[in-house]
Every structure is written in structure tokens, then in C-alpha cells.
Amino acid sequence: KNAAITKHPPIPIHQDEDINNTAQPSQPIHANLTEEQALTLADEWYTQFLQTQPAQNNDILYICISSVNDYVKGLLDVLITEMKQHHNITIKLAKDIHPHKTSLVITPPTPPSSSSSQKRSGNRNDIGLSQFRTLKAMRASLVGIPIVTPDWISACLKEKRIITPAEQQQQQQQLNNSRCGFCIRSLPPKIDSLLRFKQDHSNRNTVALGPSARFGVARLAAIQNMKKKDGG
Hints:
- This protein has helices at about 15-20, 35-50, 70-85, 115-120, 135-145, 150-160, 165-175, 215-230; strands spanning about 60-65, 90-95, 100-105, 145-150, 195-200, 205-210.
- By secondary structure, it is α/β, with parallel strands linked by helices.
- The strands form 2 sheets. A 4-stranded parallel sheet has the order 2-1-3-4. A two-stranded antiparallel sheet has the order 5-6.
């Protein structure tokens, strides 16, 4: 007779937990980075990324859009036509994120607000917070793909060329002392308190109160840059 086979119930898999755990590197190599260092390393990575990614795809700039309105889509169509006709730059829309193909993601920033909860979390425009926490944005941040606001389209049309986040950040710093420019630097967390911060008065650096989502996108890009410099 065959021995009785004991069946065990399948272990439940929580997709949200998997996504959140994947977003955290196994080794906290960014733990000692200040916010300014993270931004500098991120912009350096984005500049290199925008220079090399299209070259690997027959000089085509693949852009993915996430939660943008019809006006932004129309503006992007103008940019695609302008770059092709006058600058011989081909831009194509991608439906999803492809780590070795997508060059850029466009998504709206969080709108300005004066609510008390946002005041406790700090100036959300100053941390480059996106309006939505979309799957496309999360996937892009994990692999270091630049995420920008629709202002990037306007900036490219104004300059009549494809500009990098580092260039825009320099311009924004001169105009209004913004550290983010048109870049998305943070994604909205499920827990609002993860955006809070305190001031380290010993060295004037802004540090997080425990686990933080502040500049999470920038820190992930900085990690990509650090790994590349280390030969990873």
C-alpha cells in the first residue's frame, strides 16, 4: 500500500511585501550618504544613463509615461515631432518599463499643499515627491531609470535639445534654490510619517527619523552609481 501523503497548504505570498522588500538593498551601502551626496550621485548616474541607454537601442530614446493627462501627452507629441524633424532624434513611447530599453519615465509631481500633515512631513516639493506611487515609477526607481515631471518636456522644447537632470538642477538652484528641478526624487509612501525628518545640528545635515522614504528614488540611483564605480 502507498504511504499516506501529507499535504501542506501553500505559503501565501504578499505581493506588496515583495515589492517593498525588493526596494531595499541587501547591504545598506547608502546609509552614510547625506541627501546632497545622494542627489549628486543620482544626477551623475542619470547623465551617464541618458547618454548610453539610447546608444544601446539604435539611438532611440524610449519614454514611458505614467498617470499623465492629455495635455502632457499632447506636449510630448510636440517634443517627439520637434526632435525628429529638426534634430534627427528619435523618441518612442514604451508601454512598460524595460530595464535595458527604457530611458526615461514621466509622471506628475505632487501638487503644492498647505495641509498640516504635509507641513509635519516637510516641504514635499523640496523632496521631489511624485503625485502617485505607480508600479511603473517603482520599477523604474529600482533599476535607476530617471523619473521626471512634465516640466522636463517644456525644458527640452525651450532648449531645443534633450537636457539631463543635472543641467536642470543647476538652473533651478540659480533661480529658486530648488534641489530637485524636474526630477522625481521620492515616491509617496504608504505611511506618511516615513517622509518626516529632523535636523542634525552637529553637522547641519538632514537625517531621517528611522526608515525613510525621503529621496528614496535618488538614493536608489546613487546606489546604481556606486555599484558601477566599484565594478559591480
